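## retry 2 of 3
previous attempt timed out at serialization; input unchanged, resubmitting
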Amino acid sequence: MLWSDPKNEPPQDMREAQAMIRRMTVILVIAMIVVVYVLGI
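## retry succeeded, writing output
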């Protein structure tokens, strides 16, 4: 690898999108657990 090679990391907007997708996934998982718990009672 040359010193002039760009860093292998996504641009800022891509990182923000990935973080938002991660948060939405966590929220969806929690919501599904709550729904299953409520329907199970």
